[in-house]
Design goal:
This protein is α/β, with parallel strands linked by helices. The chain contains five helices and nine strands; from the N terminus they run ββββαβαβαββαβα. The chain folds into two domains: about 40 residues, no CATH class; about 150 residues, SPOUT methyltransferase, trefoil knot domain (Alpha/beta knot, 3-Layer(aba) Sandwich). The longest helix is centred in the last third of the chain and has 16 residues.
Length: about 210
């Protein structure tokens, strides 16, 4: 079924806004609206997944925010990452907060829950995965840096406490994104997106 976005303008307050269905009043002031243009939207069914090989996965260690988890699901799907390990207090599907930002990506990327992230990382290392941790204080990462060639997993940690020191000791490499502002770091889902898409673009081969 085709999905269309419709664009409206309120005759009262002047608000211009989109909607995926017919609307008769402004969501801000309740006034009458004038319908403008519309555009068709690509559906998920029209855009099948293309997972990377060798595979990439992520370990989400004690994230607090379901919205961050949902955003990471959506980015992992876009980047072709194959699996998310949800550990500790990290929210897991089904969860309304995850669905709000994942927009269905939680059904496209496989995931598993584990109470202890350390055990997950020890197992991944034994299975031959290269483990990087994204954490403040690590080596500055740049898009042109060498990336692992085999199976790769990226660990991101709690929004306030960061990554467990025991996990840091297990990592093959600890990296950070260089910051130029007054803040020391990005939101965890944004930081994951920068590194995940950067690595995926490097791994893609020309067609």
């Amino acid at each position: 079924m085709a999905v269309k976005a419709r664009f409206y303008r309120c005759e009262g307050c002047g608000l211009r806004f989109p909607a995926l269905e017919e609307v008769g009043k402004c969501p801000a002031c309740g006034g009458g609206v004038v319908r403008g243009g519309e555009r068709g939207l690509e559906t998920d069914a029209e855009h099948p997944s293309e997972p990377l090989f060798p595979p990439c996965s992520a370990v989400l260690e004690n994230l607090r925010s379901a919205w961050n988890v949902g955003s990471i699901f959506r980015t992992a799907d876009a980047a072709g990452w194959s699996h998310l390990h949800l550990c500790g207090i990290t929210p897991a599907p089904p969860h309304p907060g995850i669905s709000k930002t994942a927009l269905g990506a939680e059904r496209c990327v496989s995931w598993s829950y584990h109470p202890d992230a350390v055990e997950v990382i020890e197992r991944l290392r034994k299975e031959g995965w290269t483990v990087w941790v994204l954490e403040t204080g690590g080596e500055p990462w740049h898009p042109e840096d060498p990336i692992p060639e085999g199976p790769f997993t990226l660990v991101v940690g709690n929004e306030l406490a960061g990554v467990d020191p025991e996990i840091l000791s297990l990592a093959h490499r600890v990296v950070e994104l260089p910051m130029r502002g007054c803040k020391r770091s990005l939101n965890v889902s944004v930081a994951f997106g920068v590194l995940a898409l950067g690595i995926s673009l490097r791994r893609l081969t020309p067609r």
